[in-house]
């Protein structure tokens, strides 16, 4: 009985949050006392009906004995979120009426799109507590709201565990959309190792649970898993998922290849990265600017200038614009390798191209950099010698 009383108090508190007076977007401020109206001046007619009249108009539209789908349609048709949530609260107080997943889904959508986070969070807690019958679409909507807010991220996994614990006959087991929402929220937090290893464990756990439950992923979901592994430079795990894609009837796209190629170059596997890069181009996929730039820089740092130059020209032909660091890496490494004349010729070729030519500012900076690096620097050696003498 104590548990039932506590649940009743929580439900009453959530209903209070849905009251129109609690759903204002601005904090109440004391208004100065208005002067006495002049009886000779007529009051202007209001341009907008008061909220009470709008609410009464909507109540009269709902016929007696309305059902939850009728209420959901009324809530969805109302653009004012406060009025829509007031209808939801009013229906909950009607004798003999109980909200269904359709009405909860419509109210949650009205609260989330209408920027009423307190009311939306109260609805999510009601659904999690079992205020209505289980519904997969409603659970996914609650997960989407929780995944968009950092403070509700633990609640999203609590709801996910509740969905997994439900019997199969309920039809509320996690599906592709459920795993996509959770993995998208986790991958957004995966940046660079070693801090990202904490979230990588969650990615591995969700991947194993997805396989164990028999959910068939799509290309977007598999790309999320590959992206998480690639950001942590776990190339072997990313390649394992890549090779499993045909088993699920999925074909890799430009994002799949882009994540793998970029991770290979970051790990130092330049030869393997070029193999997948060539396979990507043979299939007609156009890499992103980041993949192109890391390929050009990785090849230039290994003094494979001809391959780096071809990748750079292909990048310009595909209307991808390199940054200053990519140009400087290629040209300055050529100078360090003793190919100073070839570096100046490459710079002039890049300036005279019809597709993706260099602008004057970038050309001047690159030209000054080549002149500086191609000249012998005696000062640096003198400083080194003085330091070695002092050390003796």
UniProtKB/TrEMBL annotation:
Keywords, in A-Z order: Repeat, Transit peptide
PANTHER family listed in its UniProt record: OS06G0184866 PROTEIN (PTHR47938:SF2), RESPIRATORY COMPLEX I CHAPERONE (CIA84), PUTATIVE (AFU_ORTHOLOGUE AFUA_2G06020)-RELATED (PTHR47938)
Keyword Repeat: yes
Protein name (Swiss-Prot/TrEMBL): Pentatricopeptide repeat-containing protein
Bias-annotated ranges (Pro residues): 29-49
Gene3D superfamilies hit by this protein: Tetratricopeptide repeat domain (1.25.40.10)
Origin: domain of life: Eukaryota
Lineage: Eukaryota, Viridiplantae, Streptophyta, Embryophyta, Tracheophyta
Family listed: Belongs to the PPR family. P subfamily.
UniProt PPR repeat ranges: 218-252, 253-287, 323-357
UniProt region (Disordered), positions on chain: 19-49
Molecular-function GO terms, alphabetical: mRNA binding
């Amino acid at each position: 009985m104590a548990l039932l009383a506590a649940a009743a108090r929580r439900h009453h508190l959530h209903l209070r949050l849905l009251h129109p007076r609690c759903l204002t977007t601005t904090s109440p401020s004391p208004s100065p006392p208005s002067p006495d109206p002049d009886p000779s001046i007529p009051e202007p007619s209001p341009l907008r009906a008061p909220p009470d009249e709008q609410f009464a108009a909507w109540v009269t539209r709902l016929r007696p004995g309305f059902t939850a789908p009728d209420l959901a349609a009324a809530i969805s048709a109302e653009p004012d979120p406060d009025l829509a949530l007031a209808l939801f609260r009013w229906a909950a107080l009607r004798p003999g009426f109980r909200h269904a997943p359709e009405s909860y889904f419509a109210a949650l959508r009205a609260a989330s799109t209408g920027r009423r986070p307190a009311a939306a969070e109260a609805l999510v807690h009601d659904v999690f507590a079992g205020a209505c019958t289980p519904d997969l679409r409603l659970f996914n909507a609650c997960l989407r709201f929780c995944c968009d807010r950092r403070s509700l991220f633990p609640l999203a996994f609590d709801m996910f565990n509740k969905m997994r614990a439900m019997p199969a006959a309920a039809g509320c087991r996690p599906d592709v959309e459920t795993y996509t929402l959770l993995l998208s929220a986790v991958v957004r937090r995966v940046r660079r190792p070693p801090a990202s290893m904490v979230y990588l464990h969650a990615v591995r756990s969700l991947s194993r649970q997805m396989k164990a439950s028999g959910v068939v992923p799509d290309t977007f979901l598999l790309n999320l898993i590959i992206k998480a592994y690639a950001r942590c430079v776990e190339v072997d795990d990313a390649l394992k998922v890549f090779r499993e894609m045909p088993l699920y009837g999925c074909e890799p796209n430009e994002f799949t290849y882009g994540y793998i190629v970029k991770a290979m170059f970051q790990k130092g596997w330049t030869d393997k990265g070029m193999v997948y890069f060539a396979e990507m181009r043979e299939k007609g996929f156009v890499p992103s600017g980041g993949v192109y730039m890391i390929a050009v820089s990785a090849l230039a740092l290994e003094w494979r200038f001809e391959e780096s130059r071809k990748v750079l020209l292909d990048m310009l032909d595909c209307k991808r614009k390199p940054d200053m660091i990519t140009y400087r890496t290629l040209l300055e490494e050529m100078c360090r390798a003793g190919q100073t004349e070839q570096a100046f010729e490459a710079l002039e070729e890049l300036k005279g191209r019809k597709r993706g030519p260099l602008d004057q500012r970038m050309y001047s900076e690159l030209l000054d950099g080549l002149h500086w690096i191609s000249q012998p620097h005696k000062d640096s050696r003198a400083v080194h010698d003085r330091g070695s003498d002092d050390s003796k």
